[in-house]
Amino acid sequence: MTNILLCGCAGKMGTAVRNIAAGREDCRIAAGVDRVPMQLDFPVYTDLGAVTERADVVVDFSHPSALEPILQYCKKHNTPAVLCTTGYSPEQAQTVEDAARELPVFYSRNMSLGINLLMELARTAESVLGDEFDVEIVEAHHNQKIDAPSGTALMLADAVNGVRENGMKYVYDRHSQRKKREPKELGIHSIRGGTIVGEHQVIFAGQHEVITLSHSAQSKELFAVGAVNAAVFMAGRGPGLYDMGDLIRDGI
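The chain above was modelled as a monomer; its predicted structure follows.
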């Protein structure tokens, strides 16, 4: 039985994780942390440092500002971390990599199996099509999402850019410039509206043909399933930086 400490337990994704864990026999939520006090079927704290329950893994669906306290807690208790929060700054992303030298850290900007498959397909397409095709990424999310572009869009962009040896320039806004598109540009565009859960398109536009790879998330539940699978996977792991690729290879 994997005991999970859930940070952000009162939020939408925290609620989804609670519901998924409640239906499984291999894990449970041992305690939760949230800035909003609430009564649940497990202890809920507003301060991570006040948690007394034993946890086999920490799952975070809270806010980027909570990263440092979570990593400090995990180092103190030698507890693996599953980081599902998006919107980390480049400096915070580096902090995650540094922490993984002494901690088991699972970090993915998207917990969906389908999105991670899309990332692999985008890499393959870029390696086949090359710089004869322009690449644009379009992402759409609900009107309550704070960060733009999404972490997933950046993950997809990094996958394509890696094939080109990181020689591409990310462009987020073209309305203020009047010039032709440069060959090494990678456009990233954000749409926010309604209750869109998450949609991503990777567009390869060539001469007289366009190839579009896409993924549409229809429920937040799929991200919660991925997070819980990652939590069970990470319990007992050694130090290192893990991602969805490791989980997929493990057969979960």
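The chain has a mean pLDDT of 93.
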